Amino acid sequence: MSRVNAILPRRTAFHATRIAGVLLFAFASLLAADDLRVYAIDVEGGKSTLYVSPTGESMLVDTGYGDYNNRDADRIAAAAQAAGVKQIDYLVITHYHGDHVGGVAQLAAMMPLRAFFDHGSIFGTVNPDAKAGYDAYVALRAKGPRTIVKAGDTIPIQGIHVEVVTAAGEGIAKALPGAGQPNPVCASYQALDPDPGENARSIGMVIAYGNFRLADLGDLYWNQEYDLACPNNKLGVVDVYMTTHHGTKTSGSPQMVDALHPKVAIMNNGADKGGSRRAWQTIHDSPGLIDLWQLHFSNEGGKTHNVPEDFIANPSEPCQGKWIELTAQKDGTFTVVNGRNGFQKTYRP
Q: Are 232 and 184 in contact (CB under 8 A)?
């Protein structure tokens, strides 16, 4: 046999293996396209969550802080790249605090922002840093389609259903389909002093993909949660609860958390922001909860009010900005992955 003839079979085998690998990757990509993907991005106690629908459209909820040398915009862009997203089709700004709207100008310099959704004008007294983020957002939204949402509206991302359940201080008047049951925990409710600013006006959403449901209520204040949870549960149960207000003690009331009855909660806390013992304990004690995941180890929580390290994306400071990724299937099965160590768990209907 000549040297050429000897080499040909090996080359043929190599190309066959390479083609098989390409086909396998393409098949895996097609399967992934049938999933909803969610990235809880670490903006160190701020808020930014990326949703990628099975159609490939993207919705970003909030943009984190605007300082720290583009830190948060860089982290959002990295998550978008990992998700194969080159633009943000729907940007939802839940409210105008600096840890939610601050990074919008820096992000806009990195990738297109196509459409803007918010609750209306800024409300109450806002510190200068937050005002700067708000002004930058106002300038950007003037360049593209902007929608002021109210409770009962939907965000028109294709492939999933995004229902706005609260905005500008008003919740939905009627229960969502399948919800509306009496909430026995309401008997123990105690209101807090009214919130004078933006948290009470935060946009909150329930996101559904087939049998999978997720609640993302932004920084909704304790008293406004009552309107959704009591005396009847207007939202119904969910599979995943993106914890309200970073796990701060003035949100995430037992009435709201018990009404949602989540299997999994994901807390967007920082080391020294959110992750309060009170909020952590409420979630931990919620009936039906299987696991709580945290973006950061909470210094306030200490040894007794933090989850095991495998469930924490950033267990020490300075952190590396690792995210928590969730992938949901239409039948209600979903998987949560720790971006730091690859630890994952799958939860079934």
A: no
